[in-house]
């Protein structure tokens, strides 16, 4: 799972984003949201700026995979647990988002920030994918071109006194 980093690059013009966020505020909106709006208008970094990506960048599919070249190689480790991890992450995000939305700590577009496991094949389309798995079997949603088995054996440890 790739989540937003701590750095953030603002678009050249943030006026439209600021206006959209302000339209969603009202008398019950938390003061932190108004501070965030001010920071966005001034293009100042603040903790949680990644929550406003949907306002700042209007194009759909704001995935890191868009920035990878077509010949990029993406390595996925322990794919058997990836679905479970993704679902847990999405569920936790949705629970927190809905709670914060009720308390007026978040804006409704922030709910569009997370991709589900089922969207991974679309996001990884045209990318070279290496799946590292203990079990040599196809994975639902991912087309497997080749399966390569690696045999390994344990190397005895040497303890010197």
Structure description:
32% of the residues lie in helices and 6% in strands. The protein has five helices and two strands, in the order H-H-H-E-H-H-E. It has helices at residues 15-23, 31-41, 53-56, 79-102, 120-123; strands spanning 73-77, 128-132. It has a two-stranded parallel ribbon.
Distance between the termini: 43 Å
Q: What percent of residues adopt helix (DSSP H or I)?
A: 25-40%
Regions with little confidence, pLDDT below 50 for 5+ residues: none
Major sheet, described briefly?
Answer: 2 strands, parallel
Beta strand count: 2
> Helix- and strand-based class?
mainly alpha
Oligomer category: single chain
Give, in order, the helices and strands: HHHEHHE
The geometry reads as: elongated
Give the number of helices.
Answer: 5
Compose a concise summary of this entry:
This protein has five helices and two strands; from the N terminus they run H-H-H-E-H-H-E. The chain has helices at residues 15-23, 31-41, 53-56, 79-102, 120-123; strands at 73-77, 128-132.
Helix and strand arrangement:
Elements: H1 15-23, H2 31-41, H3 53-56, E1 73-77, H4 79-102, H5 120-123, E2 128-132
Parallel strand pairs: 1-2
Question: Keywords for this structure?
Answer:
two-stranded parallel sheet; mainly alpha; 32% helix; 161 residues
């Amino acid at each position: 799972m790739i989540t937003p980093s701590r750095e953030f690059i603002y678009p050249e013009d943030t006026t439209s984003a600021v206006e959209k966020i302000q339209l969603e505020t009202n008398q019950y909106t938390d003061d932190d949201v108004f501070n965030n709006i001010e920071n966005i208008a001034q293009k100042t970094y603040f903790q949680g700026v990644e929550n406003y990506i949907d306002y700042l960048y209007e194009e759909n599919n704001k995935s890191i995979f868009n920035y990878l070249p077509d010949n990029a190689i993406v390595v996925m480790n322990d794919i058997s647990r990836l679905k479970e991890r993704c679902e847990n992450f999405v569920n936790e995000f949705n629970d927190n988002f809905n709670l914060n939305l009720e308390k007026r700590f978040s804006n409704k577009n922030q709910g569009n920030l997370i991709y589900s496991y089922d969207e991974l094949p679309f996001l990884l389309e045209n990318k070279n994918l290496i799946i590292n798995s203990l079990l040599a079997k196809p994975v639902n949603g991912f087309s497997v071109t080749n399966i390569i088995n690696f045999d390994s054996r344990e190397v005895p440890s040497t303890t010197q006194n």
